[in-house]
Amino acid sequence: MFERTFFQGEPTFRHGEIPRLGVLLAFLGTPAAPTAAALRPYLGEFLSDKRVIELWQPAWKLILNGIILRTRPKKSAEAYEEVWTDEGSPLLLITERQTQGIETRLREQIEQPLHVAFGATYGHPSMASALEKLRAEGCRRIVFLPLFPQYSSTSSGAAFDAFARALMDLRWVPEVRTIMQYHDDPRYIALLADRVRARWADGGQPDKLVMSFHGIPQRYLENGDLYHCQCHKTGRLVGEALDLHPEQYQVTFQSLFGREEWIKPYTDRTLEAMARAGVQQVDAMCPGFSADCLETLEEIEGENREIFEENGGSRFRYIPCLNDAPDHLDFLASLIRENMAGWLPADGGWDRAQAEAESAASRTRAQTLMACPARANAGYSTAK
Question: If DSSP codes are grouped into helix, strand and coil, which group holds residue 125?
């Protein structure tokens, strides 16, 4: 009567199954609909994360539930409504296409059975449901990739927490490798520079290139978060790839929340100051986002465009994120494959016939052993 099962087992496990490789892509998440009712639980989960809001939790919970979740969902819903498509959330749709494209590429490059899934740090599909999909496919080795080029405790760290919580419920924990940043990968930098060149080939070079990244509180930087440094390195490398002088581009930070100081310079104030100083043409991009979302489409292309133009700027052009462009997916697939080193055959080939023969032998040994309970109960392993 005191027995209890704490962990998820695998009653359907069969000896002799060929182990499969898995890839779990993590993205921030999105509300189910652009409505206050849908935003309330989504924001509640997001703003309850200690990675995101590092405050004394009892006091913060009172503020969150007593004030913020009573007012902010309606305002946020109005912003989401501006970017929502007939098919749904742009971030969710792009992430789905990224997942499909990466899986297609990896299956073309890797002969071993392989599956790719994606999960949200907040909202749906949950990280636990994504992990369950991979487990159901028999994936015993998993590469975990948060789709955040620059590491921050508030993004990549929070995504890993969600993944780790899902792993904590499993009896059989898979082998895991994580890719927590790629902010200075030459291939990623080249992709960003290529996007800028393509825009400049159609309309010419502007007075300024603004690279806007999501902000974090200044306090997080002072407590050791690497994000600020990595954003500036990405910006510098892109500038160098484009042969720009430092005065020709600007790294800024957006999406402030709350009253405390965040890392600077702020995107909106920078654009306002540029326009008032006589800068007429600006191109803006968001290298910290792998897919266009509320922060890029509504905040940068919408709100910040208006700020620049209302203060005297004549031309503001937004350069979209890398999204599901073929060369972006080629890069991500290569990055993932590189992190499978040691899991793949050294010669690049995989012998299906040999793998099936080994699995059949394992199945036969297990069946023989289980047919003799005395031997099985004596401690013989049935794992091989």
Answer: coil
| Contact indicator for 171, 9 with CB cutoff of 8 Å | yes
Question: How many alpha carbons fall within 13 Å on the CB side of residue 251?
Answer: 21
Residue 146's DSSP bridge partners are 26
Residues 275 and 235 sit within 8 Å (Cβ to Cβ): no
Give the pLDDT confidence score for residue 380 in this predicted structure. 46
For range 112-123, the mean pLDDT: 96
- Report d(CA 215, CA 343) in Å as an integer: 37
311-to-254, 262, 281, 303, 304 alpha-carbon distances in Å: 18, 23, 12, 13, 11
315-319 and 281-285: which strand pairing?
Answer: parallel
CB 43 within 8 A of CB 122: no
Instruction: List the structure tokens of 164.
Output: 């780790």
Element containing residue 215 per DSSP (H, E)? none
The residue whose two tokens read 């790629």 is 182
What is the residue type of 31?
P
The pLDDT of residue 301 is above 60: yes
Instruction: Say which amino acid occupies 326.
Output: P
- Dig out the tokens for 157 from the structure: 């760290």
φ, ψ for residue 345 (rounded to 5)?
-55, 140
The pLDDT tens digits for 310-332 are: 999 999 999 999 999 999 999 99
User: Residue 81 belongs to what H/E stretch?
Assistant: helix 69-83
Q: How far apart are the first and last CA of the chain?
A: 34
Tokens of 73: 């969902």
Backbone torsions φ then ψ of 108, nearest 5 degrees: -75, -30
Question: Model-level pTM?
Answer: 0.89
In this prediction, residue 299 has a pLDDT band, given cuts at 50, 70 and 90, of: very high
